[in-house]
Amino acid sequence: ARLVRESPMAYNPDNVFAKILRGETPSTKLYEDDFALAFNDIGAVLPIHVLVVPKGAYENQADFISNGSDAEVLGFWRAVSVAAELAGVVDAGYRLIVNTGDDGGQEVSHFHVHILGGRPVGRMVSD
Ligand code: AMP
After folding, report:
1. Ligand 1: which atom is nearest the Cα of residue 45?
2. Long-range contacts: 28-34, Cβ < 8 Å, 24+?
3. Would you say the CB of residue 85 lies under 6 angstroms from ligand 1?
4. Exposed, middle or buried: residue 62 (CB in 10 Å: 0-12, 13-18, 19+)?
5. What is the pLDDT of residues 63-94, one digit of tens each?
6. How far is the CA of 19 from the centre of ligand 1 (A)?
7. Does this model's pTM top 0.90?
8. pLDDT above 70 covers what percent of the chain?
9. Which terminal CB of the chain, N or C, has fewer other CB atoms within 10 Å?
């Protein structure tokens, strides 16, 4: 079902996460399966800062949920949970963040989830 848009948005295949998925840009891999890749954020803001990206070309959550298959969506979110387990943050707790668009502060136009933890994450927003 197309929940949001009739056709996929223009996806820019030159974004850095697409390059990581193609192996053109290095990353420190935590987990990979058919649906997702999890790797350390290069600009970590907490002791644990992992990014999880779907393997498919989706710009953001709306694009992913509208145009991704059921298997891709389920596989991706399962991979987020596996990555959190592997990162060792499940018992202490962690925060998932999805920045979207300009106001959301999204810098990379390939859908991704941040897993943040390793210490108390703090306020939901800074101001
Ligand atoms: P966002 O603002 O949600 O789009 O987050 C983009 C994130 O990607 C930032 O936290 C960056 O530190 C991170 N990032 C950018 N380039 C790389 C890279 N080559 N490897 C790992 N993380 C990256």
Report:
1. 10
2. 30/83, 30/86, 30/87, 31/79, 31/82, 31/83, 31/86, 33/75, 33/79, 33/82, 34/75
3. no
4. middle
5. 999 999 999 999 999 999 999 999 999 999 99
6. 12
7. yes
8. 93
9. C
Atom 11, ligand 1: residue with shortest CA distance: 43
Beta-carbon contacts of residue 10 (< 8 Å; ≥ 6 apart): 59
Report which ligand 1 atom has the smallest distance to the Cα of 105.
Answer: 2
CA distance 124 to 127: 9
CB 107 less than 6 A from any atom of ligand 1:
yes
Cα–Cα distance, 3 to 14 (Å, whole number): 26
CB 50 within 8 A of CB 115: yes
CA–CA distance, 26 with 34 (Å, rounded to integer): 19
Q: pLDDT digit string (tens) for 1-31?
A: 445 555 555 899 999 999 999 999 999 999 9
Residue type at position 59 = E
